[in-house]
């Protein structure tokens, strides 16, 4: 199995290769998940010329560590940067887009704020860009109701019976602490974001309510919000996941195309 040396130990990753690649994606999953839950998205994007790279965060999936204990968002960002370097080494000619869901979306947003030249764009789904009312900073226990995640009964059945996934842990205080730090950073710096970012978000998301993303989309010109009507938090694994994957593929491939300014520079 493929692993790389992460900040706090080995990190498992997966790679879905494209036959005629045009762009690479580095994917960061959400809390309690692992990269294998996104095989449908990976298959869809790789068939559209997207090299798809995804890791299992520390304490998740096949990466070692206490369940749910990911260390810190900074460590997750450093591991994402290492996977990005692997993707770039494998195909140096391809631009890279970072894609993240939920916790992974927060880490992806921090990554493009910290290193805007590393990626040509970002996609964030179920992104907690603003404080969420249900998160108790003093509660050690973290627990989600699976029915709040998706309307797709087949996905929910697979999720709750997946030994590599979980919807509860005793690392809730860590998650709350790191999200609180991220929200302070977003409040200070997100307004200055210049990199193209697509946010896909379910209108019925009660884990990270869509209003928090709408607020930012209204004031950040480079942030485009695509609302998925009737979808819950795990919008990439909803009943309409195929349409959402097409929208993401279109955005990702578009970021790999040269701008008119770049064309003029090449033509002289």
How would the blueprint of this fold be written?
Layout: E1 3-6, E2 9-16, E3 23-28, H1 39-46, E4 50-55, H2 73-90, E5 96-101, H3 103-114, E6 121-125, E7 142-143, H4 153-160, E8 168-169, H5 172-189, E9 197-202, H6 211-217, E10 223-228, H7 241-256, H8 260-267
Parallel strand pairs: 3-4, 3-5, 5-6, 6-9, 9-10
Antiparallel strand pairs: 1-2, 2-4, 7-8
CATH architecture: 3-Layer(aba) Sandwich
Poorly predicted segments: 260-268
The radius of gyration over CA amounts to: 17 Å
Spatially, the strands of the biggest sheet line up as 1-2-4-3-5-6-9-10
Number of structural domains: 1
The overall strand count is 10
Give the biggest sheet: 8 strands, mixed
The overall average pLDDT, rounded, is 95
Taken as a percent bin, the fraction of beta residues is 15-25%
Supply the number of helical segments.
8
Which properties best describe this structure?
globular, disordered C terminus, 8 helices, eight-stranded mixed beta sheet, Rossmann fold, two-stranded antiparallel ribbon, 268 residues, single chain, 35% helix, 19% strand, alpha/beta
Summed up:
The chain is an alpha/beta fold and 268 residues long.
């Amino acid at each position: 199995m493929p692993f790389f040396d992460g900040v706090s130990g080995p990190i498992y990753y997966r790679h879905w290769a494209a036959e005629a690649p045009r762009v690479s994606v580095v994917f960061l999953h959400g809390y309690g998940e692992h990269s294998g839950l996104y095989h449908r998205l990976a298959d869809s994007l790789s068939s559209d010329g997207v090299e798809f790279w995804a890791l299992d965060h520390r304490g998740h999936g096949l990466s070692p560590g206490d369940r749910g204990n990911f260390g810190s968002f900074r460590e997750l960002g450093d591991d994402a940067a290492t996977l990005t370097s692997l993707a770039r080494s494998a195909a140096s000619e391809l631009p890279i887009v970072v894609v993240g869901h939920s916790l992974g979306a927060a880490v992806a947003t921090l990554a493009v704020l910290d290193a805007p030249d590393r990626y040509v764009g970002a996609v964030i789904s179920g992104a907690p860009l603003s404080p969420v009312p249900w998160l108790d900073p003093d509660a050690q226990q973290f627990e989600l109701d699976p029915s709040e995640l998706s309307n797709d009964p087949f996905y929910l059945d697979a999720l709750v019976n997946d030994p590599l996934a979980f919807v509860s842990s005793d690392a809730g205080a860590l998650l709350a602490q790191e999200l609180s730090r991220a929200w302070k950073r977003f409040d200070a710096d997100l307004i200055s974001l210049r990199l193209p970012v697509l946010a896909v978000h379910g209108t019925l998301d009660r884990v990270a309510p869509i209003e928090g993303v709408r607020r930012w989309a209204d004031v950040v010109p480079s942030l485009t919000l695509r609302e998925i009507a009737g979808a819950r938090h795990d919008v990439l694994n909803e009943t309409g996941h195929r349409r959402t994957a097409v929208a993401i593929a279109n955005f990702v491939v578009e970021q790999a195309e040269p701008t008119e300014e770049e064309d003029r520079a090449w033509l002289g």
